[in-house]
Amino acid sequence: MEFLHRSPFLKFLIVGVLSFALDLGLLVVLHEGFHVDLVIATPIAFLTSLVFNFALQRSFTFRAMNSRTVSAAKYIALVVVNVVVTDLIVTGFDRLDWAYGIGKVVATVLTTGWNFLLYRHWIFRHEPVRDTELAPDAKPAP
Known about the structure:
With 142 residues, the chain is mostly helical.
């Protein structure tokens, strides 16, 4: 368990897998179990998994202390970029008569790589504490 504690990338991947499982599981439950049309069930499952992913990446993976509102806005912007890039890659592969499934794998690998970096250094970045924010008896870190 110590390795997990020291590896934000492993935690990032675990949360990603759990988010995917939630997305797929909820889709199946809604569509197969409750007979919700796919047009409705798919975005409900996907959006639920995005909220789950944001919350766990923020609290478990990166232990972010920055503004929740700012991180959420950045997260939403990144989701939009990821959707557009994924669509371009998948449809690009298809138009070239290559397997669109391979395009999806390529898009997933690319977005996973930059998502980790952007989550860590932009979305959930730890803001340095200014001397004026320290308690009166606290000393700044060297």
